[in-house]
């Protein structure tokens, strides 16, 4: 979940590692392998989308429709991301700063944290280093427009409420999951494992006051954290709400097939108003079109369960499972369900209720009776920036990145020295066009220098690939824009020092540990 200095670009490995140098050569593979959805599918639902969204730099999401809906309807939502202070903040981090600030400007509660516990345990940084870098991250965030009065900034190590939440979430996690998700083994130190649970608490922290959709902007290497946090959010809930059709339970893969069988009841049921489970089983076993698209194992499992239910009517209902509710909360839920219902040991079925209404009811009862009511967190994923020298952008390779603390003239020189996607000669460039999609300098325009001006980004791209723009002039323009950006940003950083000094955030953790 934290954004550190190891983000890289290009590569061919899909083993997502939050602490390694994960790279992705084909972002489309993430859709298939990890269930990340294409952001373009939800773009039209976002009011006034940020240019990172419009330019497909934010390329994927998990469950962002919840956030977009809250944004459109002026309902509560939040955005949070963390920063591991292992070096200077650079232009790659600016993307995440911008995403947090944009969500805040759209009306969301904004949270930014310094992942100092993670930096100390996973990277081995001492507290003096962490303190210095933490201050630099916060100054850049404030200089870029984060509203500290409306939002919240904190350090993991000094937030007791966060640490208490991490302790509670740790009850729901186990070592086998750390092995499967992160590859931890017998030589993994306990503090590193503890830092993971702390990050899970970070992700859910915005919902401590009230449950609400929350988006975590990250690179795809941080997706394991998001998935684990979504699992933990579900495990802490008092109730699980699902669609059901009979006394037997169907799993998530099976319910769509049962729904298809119910919808087709007119084709096979003696009484379409009261189809029987055995009738649906016989119909599915005969191989109707409804079973197309489902694997044979799922079809066989559904048929077996329907046969076991016998002559019981196949009838849709909403099922509330008691996961870990108190007796008082479960009784309160039963009392709140209007219309026909049936109460069982461990669950209750409601026959006159829509799914959305049921989910809202379960959430309200849980919160009223002391539960967290966490909404599974959403996420958006941005592409990694290519280093100016090609390959990865790394703080350990100064020429590969531009620090937000770089002297503006040094920033100018780095851009002028950057690798490009140009051809070997100007003649070939005019004839064949440049390769903007492989050019770190074009990325500077798209990710940062063009700002909200889509026209500039589009002109640079089209002029490059059409051979109208040569690399020398393109780099000169980019270098001048970078120098102007750094001059302006560093002026605003100085202005932000007074704001930071007035905030209730510990900036000298090393001193407190002396």
TrEMBL record:
Keywords per UniProt? Aminoacyl-tRNA synthetase, ATP-binding, Coiled coil, Cytoplasm, Ligase, Nucleotide-binding, Protein biosynthesis
Asked if the record carries the keyword Cell inner membrane, the reply is no
An example Gene Ontology molecular-function term:
tryptophan-tRNA ligase activity
Which reaction equation describes what this protein catalyses?
tRNA(Trp) + L-tryptophan + ATP = L-tryptophyl-tRNA(Trp) + AMP + diphosphate + H(+)
Enzyme Commission (EC) number: 6.1.1.2
Task: Please state the protein's primary subcellular location.
Answer: cytoplasm
Top-rank lineage group of the source organism: Archaea
Motif 'HIGH' region, chain ranges: 85-93
Q: A Pfam family this protein belongs to? A: tRNA-synt_1b
Q: What does the record list as GO biological process?
A: tryptophanyl-tRNA aminoacylation
Intracellular or extracellular location(s)? Cytoplasm
Signal peptide extent: none
Record InterPro entries: aa-tRNA-synth_Ic, Rossmann-like_a/b/a_fold, Trp-tRNA-ligase, Tryptophan-tRNA-ligase_arc
- List, alphabetically, the Gene3D superfamilies matched: HUPs, Tyrosyl-Transfer RNA Synthetase
SUPFAM superfamilies membership = Nucleotidylyl transferase
Residues in a coiled coil are 475-513
What's an example GO cellular component term for this entry? Answer: cytoplasm
The family assignment reads: Belongs to the class-I aminoacyl-tRNA synthetase family.
What role does this protein play? Answer: Catalyzes the attachment of tryptophan to tRNA(Trp).
Xref: HAMAP family = Trp_tRNA_synth_A
Instruction: Please give the name of this protein.
Output: Tryptophan--tRNA ligase
Gene that this sequence comes from? trpS
